[in-house]
Amino acid sequence: MLEKLELSKSGYYDYVNRKPSNQKKRKQELSEKIKSIHEESHEIYGAPKITAKLIQSGIKVSEKYVGNIMREIGIKAHYIKPYTMTTKDCDFSPKLRNILKRNFNPERPNSAWCTDITYIWIQEDGFVYLTSIMDLYSRK
């Protein structure tokens, strides 16, 4: 098989028995430390914060190198979106009157409707609005 690949026996055995270089050893150790820091942060930290943690622990490394290692081992930072206020308490003006007066059983269809709106968070689109309208006579 070595003849078909045009490789020498000594070259093959040299490759098989070769010990990892210091650079590979360091990269492997860094990969393990980066994974552990990333998991400790609940997968929130990216390259800048992981680099800062490594520097705090006495390991001299650049942010670009940490980013490259993260890309190679397939980990990413997950951005947590800040809380978005969806509703605001409003002051009820005196112009608004209670027309229904708690009569939730009207005598004819379409004389009283009830409605509500809610906000639903969807990962791809953000907030979407769901509104429901119900005729109090038929309850549909």
From TrEMBL:
UniProt domain Integrase catalytic: residue ranges: 105-140
InterPro entries named in the record: HTH-like_dom, Integrase_cat-core, RNaseH-like_sf, Transposase_IS3/IS150/IS904
Biological processes per GO annotation: DNA integration
SUPFAM superfamilies cross-referenced by the UniProt entry: Ribonuclease H-like (SSF53098)
Alphabetized PROSITE patterns for the sequence: INTEGRASE
UniProt function note: Involved in the transposition of the insertion sequence.
This protein's name: Helix-turn-helix protein
